[in-house]
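re the bet — no i am not wrong, look at it urself. input seq straight from the record:
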Amino acid sequence: MKDEAINPIPGMVMVMIAVVVIVIASILFAVNPFTGAFDILVIILALLSLKGLVMLEPGEAAAFLYFGNYAGTLKRDGISWVNPLFSVNKVSLRLKNFESAKLKVNDSEGNPIEIGAVVSWRIVSVGEALFNVDDVDDFVRVQSETALRDLANHHPYEGRDDKEISLRGKGDKVAELLKVRVQEHLKAAGVQVNDARLSHLAYAPEIAQVMLQRQQATAVVAARQRIVEGAVGMVEMALKQLSKKKLASLKPDRKAALVSNLLIVLCSERGAQPTMPVNTES
């Protein structure tokens, strides 16, 4: 149900009119008691008309029903006057935050993980928020958690490379995808999602220790790979410098031994222990 704007009368104008009518009717009743029944009826109607006054604060809106039928929506703050027979349903248009519980789901690789999110949202269509869903706050909660589960099921916790979108490695991209998914789920409720981001992400306790060991092993392998790449480059540079400056003329077997020793020194976790050859001949 889309919003239909209603054109109210300024509230202070109707207050002034009602006051004038009551004053005039009171004077006429005092001057001519024979018109008392009519004057009292006018005063009662003037007082009942004030029931149509509606006051909205900034960031509020109101939807009106006329004997069960949708009559329109008012988003103008201040005091206004509408048909006194309208029933009023006020809603807040301010930003709201929803933080999901820590959900236990499986990522795209089947690993059990814990995930949570914070969603910032606001109502933009009063009619849809009031009449398309039973409880908009509960609807946002359930649908946001559904979208979060759906996102986790389609992406791995950790990616195999930089191109793969993973929950842990692509924070901004994951937030963008989550926002789109939540918006799709909440479209029927007249809700606009301002922001959606992960607030909690971790492996489930039963596999957390194993995954930590795997992460550590992966980090060690990557570090070793970088060390070997650097050591090979340094050995290559050393051989080029020795050959260029003619500091030593090495035979293939001596060159192989030099390369082996340099690699051991550069790749070893312990400090080098140099040895000096000693001539034991007398």
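see?? The mean pLDDT is 82. told u. also The first helix runs from residue 11 to 31. so pay up
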